[in-house]
Amino acid sequence: MPYQDVNKIIANYETLLKEKGEGAQAVQYADEASQQARFEILLQIDRDMTSVLDVGCGLAHFAHYLRAGGRNSRYTGVDVVADFVRLANRSLADDDRATVTLMDAGSDDLPGGHDYAVLSGVFNNTMTDNWGFMTSTLRKMYAAADKGIAFNAMSTWVDFQDPDLWSVDPMEVFSFCKRELGGHPVLRHDYITRPGGFPFEFTMYVYKQPFSPDR
After folding, report:
1. Which of 51, 61, 110, 214 could serve as a FRET partner for 117 with CA atoms 20 to 30 Å apart?
2. CA distance 53 to 56
3. Which three-class secondary structure string do you get for 1-64?
4. pLDDT tens readout for residues 152-203
């Protein structure tokens, strides 16, 4: 990711953190309910995941969501915003199964040794080369995960697109995952994040092994 994009994104989140505090709005969600709705869809890749890498973890709200649901999955979060990393680790100080580290945006690798890698909201911000950033990140996530990856993005299959956010054709993303990652993608375009809403985004799971009834 070009440094001008990294610096812009970091500055954006630092401003949100100062203005909104440590809640869902600091990481660019409308509210906690819509944030948790997305977490629930991500979790459905495997409700019994024993370990997870959270890419662009923000304040590690996904870790707290897992714990609130009674899941003791080993959690590793990575983020480029130093203030997020500091505050996330503070909030997880009593959790010996969770840690958050500062990520170098130019790094070629993500930490391995996890069942799944997940990502939420990271692809929404506009930048110089959104498609290049998405595909590069998905390659890194897929290489780091043992069983698969789950991520979401804004969809172009809608009547209205927010001009301040990046949207992408989910079929192009599906094709990339199938052809380039070599896994088994599942496209979810069937959910809403708030009552009365409509499906304006999608989530994709990419499994390394094909589905079997005993998974």
Report:
1. 214
2. 10
3. CCHHHHHHHHHHHHHHHHHHCCCHHHHCCCCHHHHHHHHHHHHCCCCCCCEEEEECCCCCHHHH
4. 999 999 988 888 899 999 999 999 999 999 999 999 999 999 887 878 999 9
- Other C-beta atoms within 10 Å of 6: how many? 16
- Phi, psi values for residue 134, rounded to 5°: -60, -50
> Which helix (H) or strand (E) covers residue 187, if one does?
strand 184-188
**Collapsing DSSP states into helix, strand and coil, what is residue 82?**
helix
45-69 per-position pLDDT tens digit: 999 999 999 999 999 999 999 999 9
CA-to-CA separations, 188 to 47, 91, 110, 112, 122, in angstroms, rounded: 16, 31, 25, 26, 17
Whether residue 169 contacts residue 153, with contact meaning beta carbons closer than 8 Å, is answered with: no
182: left (phi > 0), else alpha (psi -120 to 50), else beta? Answer: left
Q: Count the helix, strand and coil residues of the chain and give each as a percent rounded to the nearest 5.
A: 40, 25, 40
